[in-house]
Amino acid sequence: MTFGDWTFESGTKSAELPDHVVEALDSENWRALKKKQKNRIPAGVVPDALLNLGISDKEGNAVYRIVCARDQAEDFLKVCRRKQLTARVFDYNFEEWKKEKEELTLLKEQLKNDQANCNLIATTSMAEVFSALMHLKVIRAYVEGVLRFGIGKEMFLGVIIPRKG
C-alpha cells in the first residue's frame, strides 16, 4: 500500500498505519496523510471494490456491488441517500446461503416431479379428450346428414384422415 512517498507492507491487517510509521511522521505530515486517506477512501469504501453486476433495466439503471467497512456502512448509506442513490446493506452469511441452496435444490426437484406428473396427466387426458371429440364429430356429421338428406335406407358414415405430405 502506498501513500505519497510512503510504502507499507501489504500484510497489515488494520486500517490504521503501523506503529513504526506513525512514529516517523510529524504532526503536520500525519494530518496531511489522514486528509489524503479520507479523500481517497470516503466512508470506509475499499478502493477498486466497485463492481457492475451486469443487471440493468431499459432506463439505464444498474446494480453495483461496493465494499466498505462494516462500522461505516450506515454513514455510506446516508451519503448515498443524499446523492439520491438507492443502497442496501448486504451481509454475507455462508450458512444461510447453504440453506437457501439446499432449499433451491429441493424446490427444483419438486418442480421437476410436478412437471412430470402434469405431463403424464395431460397425455392421458389428451387421449380421452380426443376420443370424445371424435365421437362429437361423428354425431355432428350424422345429424347434418339427416337434416340435409333425410333418413335413408342405406347410410354410410366415415371419417377420412388424409396422409401427411
> How many alpha or pi helices?
4
Helix content: 40-55%
Number of strands: 4
Provide the low-confidence segments as ranges.
Answer: 1-26
Shape: rod-shaped
Mean pLDDT: 76
Main beta sheet: 2 strands, antiparallel
Strand order of the largest sheet: 1-2
Radius of gyration: 37 Å
SSE run: EEHHEEHH
**Which structural category do the helix and sheet elements fall into?**
mainly alpha
What is the end-to-end distance?
75 Å
User: How much of the polypeptide forms β-strand, as a percent range?
Assistant: 5-15%
Could you walk me through the main structural features you see in this protein, from its secondary elements to its overall organization?
This protein has 165 residues and is mainly alpha-helical. The protein has a domain of 40 residues. 52% of the residues lie in helices and 8% in strands. It contains 4 helices and 4 strands; from the N terminus they run ββααββαα. The strands form 2 sheets. Strands 1-2 form a two-stranded antiparallel sheet. The chain has a two-stranded antiparallel ribbon with strand order 3-4. Strand 3 and strand 4 form a beta hairpin.
